[in-house]
Each structure stands twice: as C-alpha cells, then as structure tokens.
Design brief:
The protein is α/β, with parallel strands linked by helices. It has five helices and nine strands; from the N terminus they run E-E-H-E-E-E-H-E-H-E-E-H-E-H. A seven-stranded mixed β-sheet has the order 1-3-2-6-7-8-9, with helices on both faces. Strands 4-5 form a two-stranded antiparallel sheet.
C-alpha cells in the first residue's frame, strides 16, 4: 500500500473552515508550487482552507519534483500516448480520493464544500477524480491541462443531491507550447457533450502558466461555487 499523500496547508485565518480547495500540481513540481494561490484567493474565499498535496511519485525528468504518473514517450496525438495517460490517471486516482476523504473528514466537511484546482498534469487528475467522486464536488478548475479519456465520460457519474454534475472551468494560455490550446476546446466540447456544465477562459499571450486574469477568473468561479459570491 502506498504512503498517504501530504503537502502544505493554509488554514482559515479564524473560525471553522466552510470550504476546502485542493490544488493538484503539474509534472515535475510539488505541492509548494500552487499553495501560494491560496493566499491570493483568501479575499474571495475567506472561510476556505487550502491544501496542495505532493504527488506520490518522484519525477524522473525533474529529480527534485514529483509526478502523478510518468510521461508517455509517444507523441501527444499517438493513440499509445492517450492510453498511457489513461492508465496513469486511473492508477493515481485512488491516492487522491483517499486524501480528499481524509481532508474532508478532518475538517468536518463533505464533497459539496470541496473544490479541485489543477495545473497541467494536475488538471488531468482533477478532472478524472472530480468527475468520478461518489458525490460531486462544488467545482473543478483546470489550468493549462487536458481531459484524459474524453471517450470514457460515461464513467463521469459524480452528482450532487439535486442530480447535477460539478461545474468546470478550463483556463489556458493561447501560446502554450507544452499542451496546445486545442486541448482546452476538445475538453470543453467533450464535457458539454456529456452535459457537464463547462466554462472556459483564454489567457492571451500566455504560455504554459497562469496569469493574473486566469487567477481572477478561477477565484471568482470558486467563490460563486462555494459561497455564492460573484465579486
């Protein structure tokens, strides 16, 4: 059995947390890479706790970093590459689900108070896990990523008490050299086809990263999902 995930946390500044935002970092990084976003979102989400677990595997391509799964040697448009990514997200899902369950229990919350935020490979995991939870999370935000297994969305059965799937926001730079912008539109179209409410935001002039506009859109999206606030 693999070791439990752990990573940096930002508790609420006072009182009891009414929401939990979980960051899933990209390939070659670790939990420290995204946790600072929580500080920037505190104004919008003052009663949310933030946590950013380290992925379970050491990264071959970046020895000081971590990975949710190994990168494929196949080109992105090669079917073998798609199958490798699918096998990767399936393998990594269990550890993330267990971590989410433990964090929610620790805070006395349920999935209706949970938001998943991913970057790059972490977006692949956030979409895969969040859409397959027993109960739908409040929201999923994916920066600079892609949807793995768009032809397997019949498995995306996570629903809330009203029978609604989790809302999704996809954010991508139009100059991304790592994961092409097209991946965002492919994901958005596939999710819409599965009747999963999806919004997207294009960060003009941005490569494989997150800009202030993207951060603002992501924070407002979560504020609406977790607190009902629009500004």
């Amino acid at each position: 059995m693999s070791a439990a995930l752990d990573g940096p946390r930002l508790p609420v500044s006072g009182g009891r947390a009414s929401g939990l935002v979980v960051f899933l970092h990209g390939y070659g990084a670790d939990g420290n890479d995204l946790i600072e976003i929580g500080r920037q979102w505190r104004g919008l989400l003052p009663q949310a706790a933030f946590v950013s677990p380290h992925a379970p595997e050491r990264c071959i391509g970046a020895p000081m970093g971590r990975q949710w799964f190994a990168l494929s040697n196949s080109p992105p448009d090669n079917p073998a590459g798609a199958e490798d990514r699918w096998n990767g997200v399936v393998k990594a899902r269990g550890a993330i689900d267990a971590f989410l369950d433990a964090e929610l229990q620790r805070l006395g919350l349920d999935d209706t108070r949970l938001a998943l935020v991913g970057f790059s490979q972490g977006t692949m995991m956030a979409l895969h896990v969040g859409l397959r939870r027993k109960r739908a999370p409040a929201a999923i935000v994916g920066f600079s990523g892609m949807l793995v297994g768009e032809d397997r969305l019949s498995e995306a059965t996570a629903r809330d008490a009203r029978g609604a799937p989790p809302p999704v926001l996809l954010i991508h730079g139009d100059q991304d050299p790592m994961i092409p912008l097209e991946a965002m539109f492919i994901a958005a179209e596939a999710l819409a086809g599965a009747e999963i409410p999806t919004q997207w935001h294009l960060s003009a002039g941005i490569g494989h990263g997150i800009d202030e506009g993207g951060l603002r859109h992501g924070g407002l999206f979560l504020a609406q999902a977790l607190t009902g606030r629009r500004s």
